[in-house]
Amino acid sequence: MGVVSAPADGFALADRVCSAASRNAQPALDIDPFSIEYFEDPYPAQELVRESGSAVWLPRYSVWAVGRYEHVHTILNDWQTFCSSRGVGLSDFAQEKPWRPPSLVLETDPPEHDRARAVLARVLSPVVMKSLRTQFASAAERLVERLLDLRGFDAIADLAQAFPLSVFPDAVGMRADGREHLLPYASVVFNAFGPDNELRRQAIARSAPHVAWVAEQCRKENLAPVGLGAQIHAAADAGEISRPEAETLVRSLLSAGLDTTVNGIGAALYCLARFPRAWELLRANPMLARAAFEEAIRFESPVQTFFRTTTRVVTIGDIEIGEGQKVLMFLGAANRDPRRWPNPHVYDITRVTSGHVGFGSGVHMCVGQLLARLEAEVLLAALAQRIKSISIIGMPKRAFNNTLRGLDALPVMIDPA
Ligand code: OVP
Questions:
Q1: I need a surface site. Which of 27, 65, 281, 417 has the fewest CB within 10 A?
Q2: Is residue 193 part of a domain?
Q3: Is 187 near ligand 1, meaning CB less than 6 Å away?
Q4: What is the pLDDT of residues 268-298, one digit of tens each?
Q5: Which of 85, 100, 106 to mutate to test the pocket of ligand 1 (most atoms within 8 A of CB)?
Q6: CA of residue 106 to ligand 1 center, whole Å
Q7: Is any atom of ligand 1 closer than 6 Å to the C-beta of 303?
Q8: Atom 10, ligand 1: residue with shortest CA distance
Q9: Is there a contact between 124 and 368 (Cβ–Cβ < 8 Å)?
Q10: Phi/psi at 365 (nearest 5 deg)?
């Protein structure tokens, strides 16, 4: 891995030399942000991306990479130039058939996007969150009591996964059986945004049973008469969207609503276990639960990357990018850009985190963020109230995914307060 200078494409050798020698030299990097070695320690490569230029060419994938906060933020807030309708993974929907029918929110642009977004925004609104809060808080308290009996457990399987699994599918109104498909399905979805590597190939090769089960669960008759799923179908009953559109929006909930919160909560637990000062602050003031979660999202950026596709020639900083180019946004790098964040590599729950791009920004900014925050807040508050200390008692095991950053296992021991 290293900084090399190379042109984007298509220039004669003389032009390359000139271009490399000029003010408009296009920096290039031979990093692979979808490799196991990158996942194990992404920070040196992210620094290279940020420091090589406002945009840097990745010859391995023929895409542009952007890691500085300012430019990631600009791209996220310019959907006209950086579109989502050609896919937000490496695959360009204008050139390749998507592996599944596109999402009506994630993989569309305004105005189509806005109609679908309005339905999800209503289903995941503050009023709905208020109606879920009591049951979520009781579930969190029950789980923490059970873990206090165990003392030693896996903070990923037994907590970061167990809690969302205990509240989210019920909130959607799903049947009890078959829920073991949900995390494997999400894993396929998030691997599929990456390149055609082993992770993506294997995930898609094994996806059929998960895809079939999820599609079936999206149907109105397989969802409880009350719940987030029913609320989406009510928009079809009212004629606001079609029935197939309602099913695809339920699919968005099932795709994006579980593994993200699992990794967000997992990030918070991993941070609180590694930064005892933060844990003490949270214990002294459980009202910091929301802040502790938000800072964990900035610090770990569970959703690491998304692509956009340029709709015109555009300049990012001093780098010109052609039309129809894939641009890879490093949300994790932007969330640790020292130009934007003081001591970016420190987990500090008293920091002002507003403006972080862990939930994105602009028209596509996470529509489920209130649900994610609700889950995390009630869980971290319950932990803060009942637990004195969390210690890591074994090797954390990293999960490898083309988009999601998180752990597969985190052996911990807790002591009661
Ligand atoms: C993180 C996201 C991720 C995966 C799928 C979808 C959305 C969807 O809309 O299907 S946002």
A1: 417
A2: yes
A3: no
A4: 999 999 999 999 999 999 999 999 999 999 9
A5: 106
A6: 6
A7: yes
A8: 252
A9: yes
A10: -50, 135
272 occurs within a structural domain: yes
Identity of residue 316 = I
Burial class of residue 379 in the structure, from the number of CB atoms within 10 Å of its CB (0-12 exposed, 13-18 middle, 19+ buried): buried
Residue 105 CB less than 6 A away from ligand 1:
yes
β partners of residue 82: 310
Q: How far is CA 408 from the centre of its chain?
A: 16
Residue 196 has pLDDT above 50, yes or no: yes
Residue 154 C-alpha to ligand 1 middle, in angstroms?
27
| Nearest CA-CA partner of 135 in 401, 375, 392, 417 | 375
Tokens in use for 6?
Answer: 């190379």
Q: Is the CB of 252 under 6 A from ligand 1?
A: yes
Instruction: Give domain status of residue 6, yes or no.
Output: no
Phi, psi of 44, rounded to the nearest 5 degrees: -60, -40
CA nearest ligand 1 atom 4, residue: 256
Residue 53 backbone class (left: φ over 0; alpha: ψ -120 to 50; beta: rest) = left
Domain containing 154 — which CATH number? 1.10.630.10
What spacing in Å lies between the alpha carbon of 212 and ligand 1's midpoint?
Answer: 17
Residue-range definition of the domain harbouring residue 185: 106-300+359-416
The total number of structural domains in the chain stands at 1
Lowest-confidence segment of 4-13, 155-164, 221-230 by average pLDDT: 4-13
Q: How far does the centroid of ligand 1 lie from the alpha carbon of residue 258, in Å? A: 10
CA distance 256 to 105: 11
Nearest CA to ligand 1 atom 3: 256
The 10 Å Cβ neighbour count of residue 181 is: 18
Q: How far apart are alpha carbons 347 and 359 in whole angstroms? A: 18
How remote is the CA of residue 109 from the centroid of ligand 1, in Å? 14
254 within some domain? yes
- For the chain, the average pLDDT equals 95
256 alpha carbon to ligand 1 midpoint, in Å?
Answer: 5
Q: Look-up: residue for tokens 């999206």?
A: 218
Tokens found for residue 388: 């004195």
Contact 402, 190 (CB under 8 A): yes
